Amino acid sequence: MQNQEDIGAWIIDQGLRGASFDEITIGFCRRLRDAGHPLRRVSISLRTLHPQYGAHSFVWDASNDSLSKVAHPHNEVEGQTYLESPIHYLISGTADSVRCQLDGRPLKVTFPMVEELRAQGYTDYAATTVIFAQEQDFQTMEGIFFSCATEAAGGFSDQDLRWIKALLPTLALALKSASLQGVAVNIVEAYLGKDAGHQVLRGKFNRGSVESIDAVILIADLRGFTATTGALPRETVVERLNGYFDCIVQAVKQEGGQVLKFLGDGLLATFTLEEGQSRAEVCGAALKAARLALSEVEDLNAALESRGELIMALDIALHLGDVMYGNVGAADRLDFTVIGAAVNEASRIEALCDQLERNLLISGKFAAALGSEAAALTSLGTHRLRGVSGALEVYGIKDEGPGPPPAS
């Protein structure tokens, strides 16, 4: 049986070797049980940096030795459930710890979730916080909230709780280390895209660290954005832009692509040809994403029109080619992106959408790689594009608007 020092040394070792949050938490709870402490349920919560979520809670259940995770949206802290929780009670400074002995003794304070535990047969509940720092440069992970509950007759002994509390600062430090890695992943995925972010985290952040890849390029742009939004309040412009971007980004992610950057009222996305994938397969996924995005925008525009609000059209270009993928920029300010002739060509093709009265244009090279799905395309002729040598054949989807006569 491990003693307190053994468990503390194990936590430190896990933190040093970079164990995951789940590994540390489950291992800690197991060791407390093995040491004779009657834990039935443990909950650990902490804030995080994430575009959608402000905090995460992890709950360990001894009955199946499992750890479940709950992500809390940013606006959840305004909800009644949070305001009536032990977490809010402790963080608000009312107390530094709380204990609810649920065996019939009178309670100084209780909470709805604690009463739910009582109804489930729990006999004791204790909670506390471990604060990392009172002030930080960025608002994340001020500390951890820790609670434990038991079904044992008589609940926890005072020695049980002193034993556990003595280990919490060491546990909090190891969990902070593990969580910072998750925060880093959240940030780079939010700002760079999933693959590009992971490339950076793997150490590919030297200027000039690029590789040549074969990829589908998707460029999207909102037609008439400046004219349409010029008279709108700034808050409305941002809200409207976010609504359109939701339509595009979710479609790209759903089909396996990644958004590399937002370009004002447009964006650049790629679908990389991974080993074992055919060009037809990847091009098919990109085409599906483009058509899904346009369908979502159509639904959004219908809702906006029903409220008498101005709408915008989404234009998309799909192209295929070799690009340079990696770090470009100044010595101390880099951008992880794709560059090359194919990117420039895709941008010029997208600029044709207004002229051809089409919302989706597809390059001849993309069409040739599409395979059997190319039967759904129709040629819109060859066009000379600014900054591109030679003329490129451009395609659209059959029966999705005739467009003007092709220019040659």
Could you explain the architecture of this structure?
This protein has 408 residues and is α+β, with helices and mostly antiparallel strands. Helices cover 40% and strands 28% of the residues. The protein has helices at residues 4-16, 21-34, 80-83, 86-91, 112-119, 158-192, 194-201, 225-229, 234-254, 279-306, 341-356, 364-369, and strands at 41-47, 53-61, 66-73, 97-101, 124-131, 143-150, 210-223, 258-263, 266-272, 313-330, 333-339, 360-363, 377-384, 391-397. A hairpin with a 2-residue loop joins strand 10 and strand 11 (333-339). Helix 1 runs parallel beside helix 6.
- N- and C-termini, Cα separation: 82 Å
The secondary-structure element order is: HHEEEHHEHEEHHEHHEEHEEHEHEE
Strand content: 25-35%
Low-confidence stretches: 402-408
Percent range of helical residues: 40-55%
Query: How confident is the prediction overall: mean pLDDT?
Result: 86
Structural class: alpha+beta
Shape: elongated
Number of strands: 14
Q: Major sheet: size, sense and barrel closure?
A: 8 strands, mixed
Number of helices: 12
**How large, in whole angstroms, is the Cα Rg?**
28 Å
